[in-house]
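ugh ok fine here u go
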Amino acid sequence: MMKNLIFVLVISAYAEDTFATVKSTLLWSNSDPDRIFSSASISRNQGGSAIALGTDFSSVGDQIALVVDQLGQTLFTLNCSSDCSIYVDQARHPVVPSVPSVDTFILYTGTGDCVISGFYSSGPNVGPLPVWTTTIPACEASEGVGGTYRCFEASDDGSTVALLGYGKDEGNPNITSRAYALDGQTGAIRWTYDLSVKQKEAAGQGDIWITTTGNFIAYINEDGVPDPNSAQMHILNGNDGSLRSEVQIPFFIAGAISDDGNYVAIQNFTHLQGSQGWVLKWNGSEYVKITTLNLINDGHEYDEWDTAITLGSNNETIVVMGWISAPDVTRLRVNSWNADSGNLLMDWSAPPNTQFQNNPSIMTWGSYIAVALWGDNDENPTVELMTVYSNNSLFEFISPGSMYSIDLVVDSSSQTTDEILLVAAGKNVPANEGGTGGDAYLWSISVPK
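structure:
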């Protein structure tokens, strides 16, 4: 149910010693009494905007992917039965207005196969009929081997969809994970690449990082040897699947690749390695570690992390990492560093009494960082917007429950302001309490330059 339009004015610090008026408008909010919103993403395509929301299992026994426009009007809805899951991703960059472009990608995971579909989110042929549908066999492995729903990414320009699946070859004694690259506009499988693993339990497990244009795709394949969190990183050419580099990394929790493919950041918490982050840089022939980032962990031992790489206002490469810190209050912490020097640029922590948070959700766009938080019973923010250079909030919001997912797009074409669309979605009661309903919000935020 869409609620009434609400206007909000937030006065906050834009940078150290500089106060600016940040204007924000709540464009719409969406409440679902039966389903928790688990994912939210924004598409800015063909001169308009669409927002895709995915839900968890619900009290009514299904999951949905809901795609709405900037005004909150439903463009289309897809349903999935109780033995299936839906995960959504979207292209976020503009395309030529006269060229119809697939910009919404939905992955269905079932009892053994994955079905990926591409949809129009604008124009006369907007969903729910898919532009294309591709089935990946044995995408979700059996015999206790983990599923692959988190290993699904689309490039921001919509050209490429990447998937990490289960690729056991009966003629190969090694259990493998199989990397897929699909053409985002046709659904055709562009290429596959098999990744051998040393432990059966690691097959089909890992992560995917993809550049904005899909020219490089990093497939992180959990390896399990010698440490349970060790991994192999394969960086492949998005066009033909040729291997650019293969790197054995001693730990892995989360990471990211820069849009030019030259920087890779990984972070971890392991008992063998301690809490740290690495920045690797391409030197023309291989990726080499150039900096080690110190993560203040305070003794916490939960593997809950998120990582991003972005370009700052001075065109320098910046690494952003978020993790759960402190043994008692387990609050979310976010830092940013210059990738080349390792110099700390910003250190931010959620309020001390914020409830424990699984799966931090952090998104970046240029110098901006958006963070989804679990809050604390209407007392602490569940949405924060800041920059990589300052821990002062540009915008914050307190929802009745907890936010699980966040996304943003930034239009910097104006000489006086940056215009931001920010979406957040989650549960309409605190995450650590019972309840099945969800809330989602979309804001328009204007930040003076």
